[in-house]
Amino acid sequence: MGESAWTMFCNNSNCSKETGRTCSYGFSSILNPYSCLNHAFIISVDMLLLVVALLIIVCKLFSKKIVTNSQSQRISSLTILSTIYNGILSVVYLALGIWTIFQKLDMDHTILPMDGWLVLLFQGLSWLGLAISVSMKQLNLPCRIAIKSCSIFVFLHAVFLCISSLLEAIADNTVPIKIILDVSSFLGSILFLSCAFRGYGSNDIDPNGDFDACYAPLQGEEHDSTNETNFKFNHNITPFANAGVLSKMSFWWLNPLLHKGKEKILENKDIPTLQTSCRAKACYLKYMDQLNEQKRRKSSGSISMLSIIVYSHWKAMLMSGFFALIKVLTLSTGPLFLRAFIAVVQGKEAFKYEAYVLTLGLLIAKCLESLSERQWFFITRMVGLQLRSMLSAAIYQKQLHLSNAAKLTHSPGEIVSYVTVDAYKIGEFPYWFHQIWATSLQFCLALFLVYSSVELATFTALAAIILIVVASYPLTKLQLKYYKKIMLAQDKRLKAIAEALTNMKVLKLHAWETHFKNVVESLRKDEFKWISGILSQKGYQIVLFWSSPIIVPAVTFWTCYLLGVPLNASNVFTFLASLRIVQNPVRLIPDIVQAFIGAKVSLDRIVEFLEAPELGNRKSEQKCHDKNFDHSILIKCNEISWDFSPSSKPAIRDIDLVVKPGEKIAICGEVGSGKSTLLAAALGEVPKCNGTNADIYFLDDPFSAVDAQTATSLFNEYVMRALFAKTVLLVTHQVDFLPAFDSVLLMSGGEIVEAGTYDQLLASCKKFQALVNAHNNTVGTEMDISRSSSGRAMSSKDGIENVHVKDEPILTGGEQLIKQEEREIGDTGFKPYLQYLGHHKGFLYFTLAILFHVVFIIGQLIQSYWLAYEIQSSQVSQRELLTVFTVIGCSLSIFLLLRSFYVVLLGYGASESIFSTLLKSLFRAPMSFYDSTPVGRILSRVSTDLSTIDLEMAFKLSIAVGTTMNTYFSFIVLAVLAWPVAFVIIPMIYLTILLQRHYYASAKELMRINGTRKSSVASHLAESISGAMTIRAFGGEDRFFLKNMNLIDANASPDFYNFSANEWLIQRLEILCAIVLSSSALSMTLIPLGSSASGLIGMALSYGLSLNVFLVFSVKYQCFLSNDVVSVERLEQYMHIPSEAPEVIEANRPPHDWPCVGKVDIRNLKVLKKCQLREAVQAKEGGLNSFGKLVEFDEPMKLMNKKGSLFGQLVQEYWSRSS
């Protein structure tokens, strides 16, 4: 009975009858996809899987559980994708099984043996059952456990099918449909596995999960329906949030915005806000949850920022890794298709219409490759955006509470750099992360294919690639060193620039611009050393890795020659196609290394900042709710210090201060006497002190930067009237206001030496008298303060209204001083590129670099054509063939070196020239520019934009142009070798141009908006750093933090749409390329090409298979370049600021020995409004000679410090007017 059943199943043979093969029993026969044992094993497994799937379905159908609307779950996108894919796979299996039955009946008039078609039917039924079971919702616990266990078993089963099928395909040089299906089942098993372990609810995988349901408002944040930001979030949210699976896979949801960008210039209001999961609130809360969880687990150990990042984003990275795996597997099928097409051209068809089937399979494989790669890049970009928002929010929150000791280590310029440079570098790393293992896997699969072509010579190829990678290690190590050095040098430069920009008025007053400009230039010279090193190392790495497709084939072919391995069109071009598949990922290794090093250095810097000490012992958090409290301020402390260290010197000592509610206290004293420290102590900013405060206003010399008239007006309107019933502590150097205060504190040497009313101190304290007299002698008195008979200053209303203030009309309808940041609009064409190349012989270096690249491409084409045309020729010996091939390859390496050399010169020269021009423009800009331009706008340009110019612009420009030329040369090769394809290529190029125009109309505006919004983030951060004490004093941390997160979201929105638009464009161009490649392959199998047909089709398809890769790299680097060129536009805006009067007029230069005598001549001096200089001069009659000239001999600084110096009075008057 058993023998009869086996005879019906397998016709008493070890292999399927139709295969014509001889198979043996044992393990080897189980691996053979044509053996009966293999079929019996697969059917057994399928029957088991089918039973489990049916049980799950029956269990669900007969369950009585009622699900309410609140409990219902929407099927996730991943589940839908898995169901559709596995459903299609099962239908194809079933259709192939039925077709096999009919074919056997037609040819053999019997369905025996049954193994061939039975295995197909059971495969189809099992996959259909699994597709249905995984799509079911609300499964109970046993069913979920069954599905998870089944998914693991299915995955292992699919691995077995995939490996056995690939081995057989390589051994037989054929790719039947069953083998394609078996390989495709591996992808289906991964989808099934992912669904089983990630769950079925949308909250697990949907980026727009119900975040608001678990979100608790930040302290001080209210759910205000009138809030503008919330209104935008609710009514103008991104279409991606509600897009379906097909829309997300094809980026169809992006079409409305791109259409709008084509019709009009995009504005801020046109850009929808992000979905909830990508907003800064969600990212920061996720960060805090992970941070608190780690603190709970590691109460005594250090916190790992890397682990926080991994735990926060592992699901998305796993999903993107899945798409990366699909891309690698589909890409690796290319050489198999090439080998099959060559076999068809050589007349070795497996069946009649194999060419058409192969064409359809190639088209499907390339489309699947495109879809998977686009999702891979899109998801990792989203992870990077969330990571950047998380770090930016964490950095902002940290700086609000940074201790004073930490502020000495982390300057404002450095903190801005952490957000604008370091957070962006870390945000870029997820995009490159999967490239590390994907390139390795792709390389291993390529080696597997190479071994089937050149056998033992594969090990030579492997050794050559390993040597190339090992040779790059010293370069990588140097790059890591240089990156650390350049970040330190950049911090020093930014610190100096930030200080200079913040105090530009002082620099211009003292004519110190040139000195500070020289200081910044000297710091930039140190930075240039490391910029040069990084550019050079990157150039060497590019030469090394771009030479690998030249070195490896030459070494491998010579090894084949020595080992006697035959070289023919099939194995040579299969080898070259496999190598071409990995050559672009290998060429990416320098970029991956750079991204890894940059992210590591940046992460270390941010972690060091986030671990910096915070303010402690803050008393400003104590709130006073008792309106009848006896005192507003109570400070009784022996020592007050900014440092916790016992050995630290106290800033102020022996403070016993009690201020009653409503009192107005003035604090005066010399510079450095501790006045500001006393205010900080009352605010709780000083870590080592004791005290209390309530409803108080602290004013730290607010009138120092305004003229006397404005100071009087401010004092009247705000200090004495608006704050009439408030407690006020005012630090001031202007003693004119002191009579109006209830009490005056005189400080000296860190102590309060005297306290009392103005009259009491003036009558009894010599130090106070000296202070008042020095002030009166320097600038005179502008206030006539009346006093009561008791000698105390009169009330604020009476005592200050006697001051004469000239009423000036208030101008209405004037322009706002600080205007909205300008940006370029519309299509600027090649203007920014020409501006970049216009610096320091840029056109010459760029032309030479492109010329050498053209020679490199033509040399590669000649090398491939020589191999294709002569590989089958009997007139050329194998030694001669390989000698010519190797000589051409070695020559090409020289041109690669020359190309990189001129690219490095281009980058270094442009960077040096742009910075020099920018710095000169900034230091020669008038004060009106600084009055109307926030410092953050300038800092974002001299940090982020300048860093882009320094390290990226030149290489991205050359690579973008180079890969575009590679793409068009591939088109030319296909059009020449298969002329009918020209009818497909020409309209395809036309469509490519249309798509790119459609894309660039929106993409450029998105990047420009992104640049201006990035400046807003930097400006707000810089302003918050300088005003952190004020923010804390008013308890506004939460309000400012919320505003910062809104700015981060506003900056992230155009970035999200920009990289989405990149994927939108590339996906459509890849589909067009897949059509061209499939058409080319079919045309070349149908057109007779003579004796060199196999070699020429091998050459064409090796170019065609890499066409997608070339196109992706071309468009991707064009997108990168269009993003980076916005930095050129932004820098150009500040490189041509209208300058002040020239610093030196050559026609009016004094003699070289001038001055021989130091003196100041004042002739016909006229000063608008009230001028005290005339009265002061009249009081010093001895200082004037008969000609009305005042002569003082001494150094300027000594004259400034000399008591009663008229030169000092002149400078003081100039200062007050220029303010």
Automatic annotation (TrEMBL):
<feature type="transmembrane region" description="Helical">
    <location>
        <begin position="456"/>
        <end position="475"/>
    </location>
</feature>
<feature type="transmembrane region" description="Helical">
    <location>
        <begin position="843"/>
        <end position="869"/>
    </location>
</feature>
<keyword id="KW-0067">ATP-binding</keyword>
<comment type="similarity">
    <text>Belongs to the ABC transporter superfamily. ABCC family. Conjugate transporter (TC 3.A.1.208) subfamily.</text>
</comment>
<dbReference type="Pfam" id="PF00005">
    <property type="entry name" value="ABC_tran"/>
</dbReference>
<dbReference type="InterPro" id="IPR056228">
    <property type="entry name" value="ABCC10-like_N"/>
</dbReference>
<dbReference type="InterPro" id="IPR044726">
    <property type="entry name" value="ABCC_6TM_D2"/>
</dbReference>
<dbReference type="Pfam" id="PF00664">
    <property type="entry name" value="ABC_membrane"/>
</dbReference>
<dbReference type="InterPro" id="IPR003439">
    <property type="entry name" value="ABC_transporter-like_ATP-bd"/>
</dbReference>
<keyword id="KW-0813">Transport</keyword>
<feature type="domain" description="ABC transmembrane type-1">
    <location>
        <begin position="848"/>
        <end position="1107"/>
    </location>
</feature>
<dbReference type="InterPro" id="IPR050173">
    <property type="entry name" value="ABC_transporter_C-like"/>
</dbReference>
<dbReference type="Pfam" id="PF24358">
    <property type="entry name" value="ABCC10_N"/>
</dbReference>
<dbReference type="InterPro" id="IPR027417">
    <property type="entry name" value="P-loop_NTPase"/>
</dbReference>
<dbReference type="InterPro" id="IPR036640">
    <property type="entry name" value="ABC1_TM_sf"/>
</dbReference>
<feature type="transmembrane region" description="Helical">
    <location>
        <begin position="968"/>
        <end position="995"/>
    </location>
</feature>
<feature type="transmembrane region" description="Helical">
    <location>
        <begin position="145"/>
        <end position="167"/>
    </location>
</feature>
<feature type="transmembrane region" description="Helical">
    <location>
        <begin position="350"/>
        <end position="368"/>
    </location>
</feature>
<protein>
    <recommendedName>
        <fullName>ABC-type xenobiotic transporter</fullName>
        <ecNumber>7.6.2.2</ecNumber>
    </recommendedName>
</protein>
<dbReference type="InterPro" id="IPR044746">
    <property type="entry name" value="ABCC_6TM_D1"/>
</dbReference>
<feature type="transmembrane region" description="Helical">
    <location>
        <begin position="431"/>
        <end position="450"/>
    </location>
</feature>
<feature type="transmembrane region" description="Helical">
    <location>
        <begin position="1069"/>
        <end position="1087"/>
    </location>
</feature>
<feature type="transmembrane region" description="Helical">
    <location>
        <begin position="881"/>
        <end position="902"/>
    </location>
</feature>
<feature type="transmembrane region" description="Helical">
    <location>
        <begin position="542"/>
        <end position="564"/>
    </location>
</feature>
<feature type="transmembrane region" description="Helical">
    <location>
        <begin position="1093"/>
        <end position="1113"/>
    </location>
</feature>
<keyword id="KW-0547">Nucleotide-binding</keyword>
<keyword id="KW-1133">Transmembrane helix</keyword>
<dbReference type="InterPro" id="IPR003593">
    <property type="entry name" value="AAA+_ATPase"/>
</dbReference>
<feature type="domain" description="ABC transporter">
    <location>
        <begin position="478"/>
        <end position="774"/>
    </location>
</feature>
<feature type="transmembrane region" description="Helical">
    <location>
        <begin position="179"/>
        <end position="197"/>
    </location>
</feature>
<feature type="transmembrane region" description="Helical">
    <location>
        <begin position="114"/>
        <end position="133"/>
    </location>
</feature>
<feature type="domain" description="ABC transmembrane type-1">
    <location>
        <begin position="318"/>
        <end position="598"/>
    </location>
</feature>
<keyword id="KW-1278">Translocase</keyword>
<feature type="transmembrane region" description="Helical">
    <location>
        <begin position="41"/>
        <end position="62"/>
    </location>
</feature>
<keyword id="KW-0472">Membrane</keyword>
<feature type="transmembrane region" description="Helical">
    <location>
        <begin position="83"/>
        <end position="102"/>
    </location>
</feature>
<keyword id="KW-0812">Transmembrane</keyword>
<dbReference type="InterPro" id="IPR011527">
    <property type="entry name" value="ABC1_TM_dom"/>
</dbReference>
